Amino acid sequence: MVLKHFNSITAENEMKPESLLAGQTSTGLSYRFSTADAFVDFASTNKIGIRGHTLVWHNQTPDWFFKDSNGQRLSKDALLARLKQYIYDVVGRYKGKVYAWDVVNEAIDENQSDGYRRSTWYEICGPEYIEKAFIWAHEADPNAKLFYNDYNTEISKKREFIYNMVKNLKSKGIPIHGIGMQCHINVNWPSVSEIENSIKLFSSIPGIEIHITELDMSLYNYGSSENYSTPPQDLLQKQAQKYKEIFTMLKKYKNVVKSVTFWGLKDDYSWLRSFYGKNDWPLLFFEDYSAKPAYWAVIEA
User: Fold this and answer.
1) Which positions fall inside the GH10 domain (predicted)?
2) Which of 3, 127, 137, 279 is 20 to 30 Å from 164 at the Cα level?
3) Mind listing the pLDDT tens digit for each residue in 240-255?
């Protein structure tokens, strides 16, 4: 089914630091690559692309990564050295096999005065880790396209922070090639026009392309207490219509929007079910692999 309908795949969790890192050794880092290797081999064998996800994130990175062998927090220089080794090891291992990497994920917090999330990365390194990550990823694989990836890119304040950060990186000659808009949305929010506004702004930065990286559409509003046992037909139709409107809009920007990735194959695989602990139907296929109205709407668009 993947091979019939898609030409690129992303590992939801298997290429994140928590999955790849096995521990520290006297000489550096140790890894467990078997699952990621199998994933990459599947793509290579079947001649489909891979987006690498993700190198630097405040979540799903082991706590010990930020500490020395005595459990003390690393210095800035020591953490950056460890990050460099990690990026060289991971990106280098899959050099030529991954066409794009989400290098830095979710580093923006629009509620901070400077826009940067107060993660452990930031607390130790300040924003410098972002620049360094892109530089080292490019050194490890000069042909891979490198992305900054984030959610809620449709919120105007967050959109502006992302725009300014990426524009600044680009102006300094940092090798960043695109912005990943996750697009975890629902049937009522955001409007298609707000998604379009973000695409317009981001693509105004010279040399920046856009990937829609984690698209899904919940049937629930954010914070909803509803929990449907079966999907309401009116909401499935509403979902389909919105997917159609989104893809109709995206086609207008085909020169800058180069990739769209759905965050899962079928509804019971969706992270939304485990994250919120209730049923949801955000993707293109039902649990039994049958195509939903959303699938046909995307095809029609």
Assistant:
1) 1-301
2) 137
3) 999 999 999 999 999 9
